[in-house]
Amino acid sequence: MSDVIAALVAASLVLGAGGPTVVPIDGATGHGDLTGIELEAPVVGMAGTASGEGYWLAAVDGGIFAFGDAGFFGSMGAVSLNRPIVAMAATPSGEGYWLAAADGGIFAFGDAGFFGSMGAVSLNQPIVAMAATPSGEGYWLAAADGGIFAFGDAGFLGSGSGGLDRTAVTFATDPGGEGYVLVAPDGEVVGFGSATDRTTGARCATERVITSALDPVSGGTWLATVPIEATITTPSAASSGVESAFVAELLAFAQACQGDPIAPTAGSLASPVPGARLSSAFGSRVHPIWGVRQLHAGADAAAPTGTPVRAAAGGTVVAVRSGLTAYGTIVLIDHGDRVATLYAHLSRTDVEVGAVVSTGDVLGGVGSTGFSTGPHLHFEVRVDGVPIDPASVLDALFLEGG
Predict the structure, then answer these.
(1) Which of 53, 134, 163, 215 is buried most, with the most CB atoms less than 10 Å from its CB?
(2) What does the alpha-carbon distance between residue 119 and residue 13 come to, in Å, rounded to a whole number?
């Protein structure tokens, strides 16, 4: 399995995540989803019915889930696949569908016809998405790099190489059949042919789009999304880096619709624990638990357990998580302009995801959760997901030896 497909599959497997949530946008109507249901194989494909009153979800093993007026016309069952299923498309009648594998293999069910596959063609990037023509006499396959392959009466209207700058995860045809759209994990849509008016910027959300479908009646879109979750590691020196990357990924999605990063100016952020003692500064250090040299991505403020931890600036809470191996319990705040602050090792949290906070609002209490040798706040400032030295932007750094 390629790195791209492995990453797409892993997106639905982290922390035993359940099935995806279906998010209707631009006039589409929801008909149910698999939220909270533990699946044997993650969902990777989606297609809507001709009426717009239902849709199918397809799993990586070829399992099919039907909602609304979508009928069941078969699945891969116990068939052993050489490559995982990665996409699906439905016939115009709603009486059949196709499944596509990562190597471009095609499986037809119901009244779906077979119009070709990638056969023995060697692909630079795996297939990740599929869409059918309005006549049902052809289909397109889309590769991870946005490359397009047309079969039957499907015409070539352009590819993603000139528009989509991230891996495509889903693909859909315009109802008129003279255009199609590619969709990225952050929800960015790039249209080609008659669908150019569907081009949109990325969404700001803390969930990853894994597949989508167009509603042919309303012109809206269904997005199937899963939460971005941390990988819980066996405690080691590597755990901090894994969780730092998780925070960066969360911010990449939560801030995807924002413009270019604008770094905070000196003194523009307030100290989250005023008057606390600086116990460890930003920069390279020998880890106090593991004894190896690595980047300390923030500044530590030593204070008694329960001491109020305050927002360094106004913003929106994008994550409240507990049980992380290294960071323990955290609060993550987006301040706009791709600037964020992270508060870790908390003993408690006093805010929820989505809360809008002002400078000085209490977020939680100092604690010693995760990797910690005593009660303190680990505080990070991130610009475009990358940690910077808090001393460069705080109005007053924690007191040296105070």
Answers:
(1) 215
(2) 29
